[in-house]
Specification:
- The protein is mainly α.
- The chain has one helix and no strands.
- The longest helix is centred in the middle third of the chain and has 39 residues.
- The chain starts with a helix and ends with a helix.
- The mean pLDDT is 85.
């Protein structure tokens, strides 16, 4: 019974790490492109 619980924990942990890194990447892209678009207009 312990193995499914541990697998689910690792599953959610992996999803959290991947989703978090994607969010940071998107925030970095927005922070990089927003000032340039504001400066152009």
């Amino acid at each position: 019974m312990d193995t499914p619980a541990n697998t689910i924990h690792y599953f959610f942990a992996g999803y959290a790490v991947i989703f978090g890194s994607i969010l940071i990447y998107i925030i970095n892209l927005i922070g990089r492109f927003m000032p340039s678009s504001l400066a152009q207009s």
